Amino acid sequence: MSSTQTNPSGQTTKTQRQVEKARRREQLLAAAARLFADRGFAAVSLDEIGTEVGVTGQAIYRHFESKQAMLGVLIGQASHHLLSSGREIEVECPDVLVRLQRLVALQTEFALSSSEIIRVQDRDLASVEDRIQREIRRTQREFIAIWIRALQSIHPQETTDQLTVRAHAVFGLINSTGHSFRGLAKRKQTGSFLAYLKHMLPEMAMQALYAAPDEPEEER
C-alpha cells in the first residue's frame, strides 16, 4: 500500500501519518538542540530527549539510528540550509554590495534564530560520525567559497587565505552573539536586545567586510 496520496490534480501529497512523523522528528531535533547546547552531547541521553517531547528513548529509533545520528542531522541540516540559501543569493544578486548585504542578513538571522545549533557545533562537531563530519565540513567550505567570490570583487589585492580570514572574522562577529543573546534572554531583555542586534550586527559586519587594512610600517 502506498504511503502517499495523489490529489485530483495528479500531485503527490503526504498522508496524515507522514505529516505527524515529520513533525515529531522536528520536535525531537529541537529538543536535542536545546539539551546538547545546555549540557553537551555526551551528557544527554536518548531518554532525556524523548521526555522533552513526551516519548520514550526507544521511540526515537523510529526516526534516527542513534544519538550520534541526531547530532549529525542537526548540524548537517543547518549547514545545508546556509549553503542552499547562499547559492540562491549568489545567483540572484550580481551586484556585489547587495549580495554581501543579503549574505550578512542570512548569517545574522541564522545566528539569532539558531544559537543553540551554533553552540552545539562549536563544542560537539567532533562527536559526529566521521563520514557525516566530512560532508558537513565540505558543505561549510562551499558556503565560505560563496563569500570569498564576492569579497574578491572588492579586495582583488588580497589572497584567498586573506579573504578566508576576513570571512571567518565576520562569522565570528555574528555567531558569537549566540552566547551573548542566551545570557541576556535569561535576564528578560530578549525583545529589546534582539532588535538591537538585528540592526547593529549587519552594520558592523559590512564595515568589517569592506575595511581596508593599513599598510604595514617598514621596519627600521
UniProtKB/TrEMBL annotation:
<feature type="DNA-binding region" description="H-T-H motif">
    <location>
        <begin position="45"/>
        <end position="64"/>
    </location>
</feature>
<feature type="compositionally biased region" description="Polar residues">
    <location>
        <begin position="1"/>
        <end position="16"/>
    </location>
</feature>
<keyword id="KW-0238">DNA-binding</keyword>
<feature type="domain" description="HTH tetR-type">
    <location>
        <begin position="22"/>
        <end position="82"/>
    </location>
</feature>
<keyword id="KW-0804">Transcription</keyword>
<dbReference type="InterPro" id="IPR009057">
    <property type="entry name" value="Homeodomain-like_sf"/>
</dbReference>
<keyword id="KW-0805">Transcription regulation</keyword>
<dbReference type="GO" id="GO:0003700">
    <property type="term" value="F:DNA-binding transcription factor activity"/>
</dbReference>
<protein>
    <submittedName>
        <fullName>TetR family transcriptional regulator</fullName>
    </submittedName>
</protein>
<feature type="region of interest" description="Disordered">
    <location>
        <begin position="1"/>
        <end position="21"/>
    </location>
</feature>
<dbReference type="InterPro" id="IPR050109">
    <property type="entry name" value="HTH-type_TetR-like_transc_reg"/>
</dbReference>
<dbReference type="GO" id="GO:0045892">
    <property type="term" value="P:negative regulation of DNA-templated transcription"/>
</dbReference>
<dbReference type="Pfam" id="PF00440">
    <property type="entry name" value="TetR_N"/>
</dbReference>
<dbReference type="InterPro" id="IPR001647">
    <property type="entry name" value="HTH_TetR"/>
</dbReference>
<dbReference type="GO" id="GO:0000976">
    <property type="term" value="F:transcription cis-regulatory region binding"/>
</dbReference>
